[in-house]
Amino acid sequence: xxxxxxxxxxxxxxxxxxxxxxxxxxxxxxxxxxxxxxxxxxxxxxxxxxxxxxxxxxxxxxxxxxxxxxxxxxxxxxxxxxxxxxxxxxxxxxxxxxxxxxxxxxxxxxxxxxxxxxxxxxxxxxxxxxxxxxxxxxxxxxxxxxxxxxxxxxxxxxxxxxxxxxxxxxxxxxxxxxxxxxxxxxxxxxxxxxxxxxxxxxxxxxxxxxxxxxxxxxxxxxxxxxxxxxxxxxxxxxxxxxxxxxxxxxxxxxxxxxxxxxxxxxxxxxxxxxxxxxxxxxxxxxxxxxxxxxxxxxxxxxxxxxxxxxxxxxxxxxxxxxxxxxxxx
Length: 329
What we know:
Layout: E1 5-12, H1 17-20, H2 25-28, E2 38-42, H3 49-65, E3 69-75, H4 80-87, E4 95-100, H5 101-110, E5 122-138, H6 146-155, E6 161-164, H7 170-182, E7 187-190, H8 194-203, E8 208-212, H9 213-221, E9 225-230, E10 257-265, H10 270-284, H11 287-295, E11 299-300, H12 307-325
Parallel strand pairs: 2-3, 2-4, 6-7, 6-8
Antiparallel strand pairs: 1-3, 4-10, 5-8, 5-9, 5-10, 5-11
Helix pairs in contact: 3-10, 5-12, 7-12
């Protein structure tokens, strides 16, 4: 495992007791919480989509709860080190996880040595946002749409490669879903993050890649890569000109995204969990949060879906992909 790289940053000073007094009646329950700054753990280095989501959410949670929210980046093992840290802390609500499907749904399927149970060792608070991934082609390939991508790969099985941010990540599973749906033989090349993946793709060392939409947008806008389609069933409101992969008959079953949720450790007091759930719902309605996350390509959760059931359903969806592709760490 990689060493733990911890960086702390206070994303917003507390709004103060006056702001706390304006909270909804549900937030008034458990009035002793929070009694000190809240640590929001992110299992990745600063700068990625999970980190961005955490910082934007942290700003609003601090306003609602009247305490500073500190972002703690615990990078390593595809987000698993951060999740492991939160699973082991005191369950008083002052340490939370802003997690993604990598560490909270996929990791347990591909890593037998995982040191936590994503369903049993956490208190689910709520979904935050989701974002599609996007399949892109390097400009040197001459590929501009899904039909030409499928035709090119089928004409030369095993000749072409696609890159992702690592084995067992959501990007890897999205690529495998495309492969399985269209019956393609294309080689997976795992990278240590999207930075080196983008470098090789734009440098001509790699033909195709799967990115989280927000990470790909600058390269797409610059014409350095071509977007073939987003991985969710519907087009993104941010990029309505990019088709959904499912619009192609061969890929009609492709529907997978990356998502972000808020968890605490297992065993949190019910009043604390209720207060955090209400604070999350209030934060997700803040115009500044909506503006920033929508601009990054995210769809904001509306609070209608319970995180626990959603997480369990997603795990079963990923299980089929993992088993068919035999993905193991």
